[in-house]
Amino acid sequence: MRFVHTADWQLGMTRYFLNGEAQPRYSAARRDVVAGLKQVAADTGAEFVVVAGDVFEHNQLAPRDVSQSLEAMRGIGIPVYLLPGNHDPLDASSVYTSALFTAECPDNVTVLDRAGVHEVRPGLQLVAAPWTSKAPLSDPVAGVLADLPADGVTRIVVGHGGVDIFVPDKDRPSLIRLAALEDAVKRGAVHYVALGDKHSRMQVGATGRIWYSGSPEVTNYDDIEPDPGHVLVVEVDEDDPTHPVEVQPHKVGRWRFMTLRRSVDSNRDVADLDINLDCLPDKERTVVRVALNGSLTVTDKAALDACLDKYARLFAALTLWDKQSDIAVVPADGEFDDLGIGGFAAAAVDELVTTARADGDAADDARAALALLLRLADRGVA
């Protein structure tokens, strides 16, 4: 028996840093990944899909987002089981109980809306742990494990949340306790645990049966989310009494959010950054955050600004990571000698250069003024 384990679709997600027309493309890509599970299922012979929480970004979605998401799920063609997570819990405002969702929910989609056992077919069960609020007061999974027998029935636990071994705050009541999961696996009551919440693909513990699938489309930068963009195809041998499991990742995401860290201390460094950005493929589906440190002349800083402006227009987004960037701008000797100006204007430039070499807000303003002067001079205006 094979099935697809996925999670954290977060349909309806927005990213504030995306360029205006990039946000609709990103939203469409998240739905396209969902619809594309039809091909993954066909290629692998998967019997059903489990979505381990956070199907939607939140419960207050635009009707268009709900309808388009349900249509994408309909297109998968095989049974799809949805677990409410912390983004879309089964609370009073739940999207899953809305009139629109209940009216348009396809026949192949089932919401795992109660804790405990859901029968897929004879001999195969899902054990669900849905979130009923954004702040559970206990481990959402432990309660559904306690009374499960080791009776030969194939059981897949579907849960959502942080596992205690990965979280510094061990007193958080909603943490999933790894020991309880491993105990259920060890005694043969559970054969695979499908988790959501982490957006990177990750094995949990040493059993080989507990996994985060990660988000099928990237949601954050690669220094935070190192391995997104997958779904897991899980094969369970139901004929073997031990129910051995094989887990295979399938790359489905097409977007990339990346962080570039560079030192920039000369015009050569700026040119190298330009080359690196130019070589990146799929710019319309790539988001770049740059962390830059160094010391540049006013001329080289103007060239850097022009470089960043250019690629901000080409990528889905390109931003300077202010908290991790520190560029000192210091006018070089003779940098403004060949502007072809004299008299009061030349004296004003000399004063700006002196101010720019100091510290404080006045220095920042002086550097900005000198950079503008250089740009105007390059255009034949000054």
Task: Tell me about this structure.
There is one protein chain. The chain has helices at 22-35, 37-44, 63-74, 99-104, 142-145, 178-186, 267-279, 298-314, 343-356, 361-378, and strands at residues 2-6, 49-51, 80-82, 109-111, 116-121, 124-128, 154-160, 192-196, 202-203, 210-212, 230-236, 245-251, 256-263, 286-296, 317-320, 326-329. Helices cover 30% and strands 22% of the residues. The mean pLDDT is 90. It is an alpha/beta fold. The protein has two domains: 2-251, Metallo-dependent phosphatases (Purple Acid Phosphatase, chain A, domain 2, 4-Layer Sandwich); 266-380, no CATH class. Strands 4-3-2-1-11-12 form a six-stranded mixed β-sheet, with helices on one face. A six-stranded mixed β-sheet has the order 5-6-7-8-10-9. Strands 13, 14, 15 and 16 form a four-stranded parallel β-sheet that branches. α4 links the parallel β3 (80-82) and β4. Residues 1-169 form the Calcineurin-like phosphoesterase domain. InterPro entries: Calcineurin-like_PHP (IPR004843), DNA_Repair-Maintenance_Comp (IPR050535), Metallo-depent_PP-like (IPR029052), Mre11_N (IPR041796), UCP033093_metalloPase (IPR014577). Belongs to the SbcD family. GO terms for molecular function: exonuclease activity. This is Nuclease SbcCD subunit D.
- How would you classify the helix and strand content by structural class? alpha/beta
Q: How many DSSP-defined strands?
A: 16
Q: Which CATH C-level class of the largest domain is it? A: Alpha Beta
Order of helices and strands: EHHEHEHEEEHEHEEEEEEHEHEEHH
CATH architecture identity of the largest domain: 4-Layer Sandwich
Q: For the residues shown, what is the average pLDDT?
A: 90
Number of helices: 10
Structural shape: elongated
| Domain module tally | 2
Beta-strand share of residues: 15-25%
CATH superfamily of the largest domain: Metallo-dependent phosphatases
Spatial order of the strands in the main sheet?
Answer: 4-3-2-1-11-12
CATH topology term of the largest domain: Purple Acid Phosphatase, chain A, domain 2
**Biggest sheet descriptor:** 6 strands, mixed
The Rg value, from CA coordinates, equals 27 Å
Unreliably modeled segments: none
Helical fraction equals 25-40%
Organism: Mycolicibacterium holsaticum
Protein name: Nuclease SbcCD subunit D
GO molecular function: exonuclease activity
Domain Calcineurin-like phosphoesterase: 1-169
